[in-house]
Design goal:
Elements lengths: L1 H20 L4 H4 L1 E14 L2 E18 L2 E11 L5 E15 L2 E12 L6 E11 L4 E9 L4 E9 L2 E2 L6 E11 L3 E12 L4 E12 L11 E11 L1
Antiparallel strand pairs: 1-2, 1-13, 2-3, 3-4, 4-5, 5-6, 6-7, 7-8, 8-10, 9-10, 10-11, 11-12, 12-13
């Protein structure tokens, strides 16, 4: 998978260069962003994925058929001296469901990790209520043939610091093999129109006993820097 991710990063770089050289057409429609992140622990669908990592990512987003098509890839240096990679391809669009406008996303993603490689297809919905945002996704993990549902609630609130937004959140993953929970708060602050920083503090736990993916009372602290080209 690592060769595939490196190839994808190279392709993203070529696409970005092409967008720059055609600034009056392609670059006006494509959003390009790069980021750096650091975290003491990382989970995916409530399962352990990496420890003490420093990550670099690049993504492209373009309008397509009334929605947004996005492709991204990242590389992560970990304390095990390994270089883990990940990729994600998704399509998002606002749809009408039971008379309400709902955000829908279909995705295919994967990553390699010392805890075990994973690939996944998923379909998710998101709806904003007056007091909170709610999300639900069904996913199928291809490497292990697992099926699950992820449910989430969050609410973005202003803070005394101008433009600093805090978002408390709760996420639960339900699968035949395990149940996982993550509860915490995220914060985001725009430094400029193009540069922003973010941070996360969360409590994580799952009951996947006797598994490399086991997470027990883990506190995650992470931060990131993002630049929109």
């Amino acid at each position: 998978m690592k060769k595939t991710i490196l190839g994808l990063l190279a392709a993203l770089g070529i696409a970005f260069s092409g967008a720059e050289s055609n600034a009056t057409t392609l670059a006006d429609n494509i959003g390009v962003s790069g980021g750096i992140s650091v975290s003491n622990f990382t989970t995916d669908r409530g399962l352990a994925s990496r420890e003490d990592s420093l990550g670099y990512s690049l993504s492209l987003t373009a309008p397509l058929a009334g929605g947004d098509f996005s492709i991204g890839a990242g590389l992560f240096d970990t304390d095990t001296n390994s270089e883990d990679g990940e990729f994600a391809v998704s399509y998002s669009k606002t749809i009408k469901l039971l008379g309400q406008e709902v955000g829908a996303t279909a995705s295919f993603s994967g990553f390699d990790s010392v805890f075990g490689d994973r690939e996944e297809v998923a379909l998710g919905l998101r709806y904003g209520y007056s007091l909170f945002d709610a999300s639900a996704a069904v996913w199928h993990e291809l490497e292990n043939d697992w099926f699950g549902v992820e449910l989430g609630v969050s609410r973005s609130v202003a803070t005394p610091i101008n433009d600093l937004v805090a978002t408390p959140f709760l996420t639960v993953n339900l699968a035949d093999e395990y149940t996982a929970i993550e509860a915490g708060v995220k914060a985001a602050y725009p430094i400029t129109d193009q540069l922003s920083i973010s941070a996360k503090l969360s409590y994580n736990n799952n009951d996947f006993d006797n598994s490399a993916f086991k997470v027990e009372d883990e506190w995650i602290i992470g931060a990131g820097l993002k630049f929109d080209f």
